[in-house]
Amino acid sequence: MKSNKFWLITFGVLIISCITVIFFLQKTPASYANIYHNNILIDSVDLSNTNEIWFRQTVNNAEQYNQILVEDGRIRIQAANCPDKFCIHQGWVSSGLIPIVCLPHRLVIQLQNNKNNDYDAIVG
Amino acid sequence: MTKKLTLMSILTAVALIIFIIESLIPIPIPIPGIKLGLANAVTLFALFLVSQNNQAEQKNQIKQTLPLKQTKITQIYYLSTFNVFAILICRILLGSLFTGRMTAFILSLSGGILAFLAQVLLKRLVTNKQIWAVGAVGAVFHNIGQILAAIIITGTPAIVTYLPILIIAGIITGSITGLIAQITLQRIKQ
Questions:
Q1: ipTM of this model?
Q2: I want to staple A69 with a disulfide (CB 3.0 to 4.6 A). Which of A78, A80, B8, B106 is the partner?
Q3: Which residues does chain B have within 8 Å of residue A3's beta carbon, measured at their own beta carbons?
Q4: pLDDT value of residue A34
């Protein structure tokens, strides 16, 4: 482990393998978005309809909201009052590769091919 | 004793300032968890301040020169692993308090501790010329720790698909951070 060449080769191999993994994972098609809150399925949305979903909850006397926009095969979080705003910065997601996650609000939007009709709970 | 405490406080303050300023820099990449882990440069610097090759020499030199009042700077500033760990924990705690994001605290903590463990283990196997590699490995483990914490918190294992991109970004940013620490140490030891 005492030579620079060893580490260059190791990291090069690691980077190449990560790139190949990314290429292989790009081929996940998705036509439905399943929205989970605290790992409980609350909504299953068809991606081909243009739709706007509001997710609200009140935690510790503070209202949390996420505005989710579905449009023509893709989905994103448009507005939210979480402190990080990472979910908004993720932008449009149309492949099933990466879920949209709002960590402070415990919200996960996962794109899959199957429509989940058995809701565990429905949040109004 | 107080000299060591002063050194640790200064390093903690520097790491804290770097961490806070870095949180204000917006990164145009939309993947959560992408950041320049510049504060890790301070951790690496503290960790390698006395490398293992010099440790035995320096302890002998300290014993020999104790009766004298004059000692070289590098002979006094020796930080044990626990000291560096304390600096890390203080920086994470204060950093997440000052930036006001306690949700980031758990993620930072898990990533930081895992990265610290990896860097400490690697320190024993690596000479002073490979600190950049230790930094890169540390950044990768930091991202792994953060993803693990995120998976546990949200309960969705699907977040693990972020891992390949974060590993690549971690190697790049970690190499830069480690290089900074390496060059700084080289300049100081002259």
A1: 0.74
A2: A78
A3: 130
A4: 79
Residue of A nearest to B156 (CA): A39
Say which CATH number the domain at A84 has: 2.60.320.10
Q: In sequence order, which residues have a C-beta less than 8 Å from that of residue A105 and are 6 or more positions away?
A: A37, A55, A57, A64, A66, A80, A82, A87
| Structural domain includes residue A12 | no
Residue A54 falls inside a structural domain: yes
CB contact under 8 A, B164 and A22: yes
Distance CA B125, CA B118 (A): 11
Number of domains in chain B: 1
- B161 token code pair: 């698909």
Euclidean distance between CA atoms B40 and B178, whole angstroms = 8
Q: What is the CATH number of the domain that holds B47?
A: 1.10.1760
Location of structure tokens 């440790």: B55
Q: Are B116 and B88 in contact (CB under 8 A)?
A: yes
- Residue B11's nearest CA partner among B93, B98, B97, B79 is B79
The one-letter amino acid at A23: F
pLDDT digits (tens, 9 = 90+) for B13-28: 999 999 989 888 877 7
| pLDDT of the residue at B137 | 92
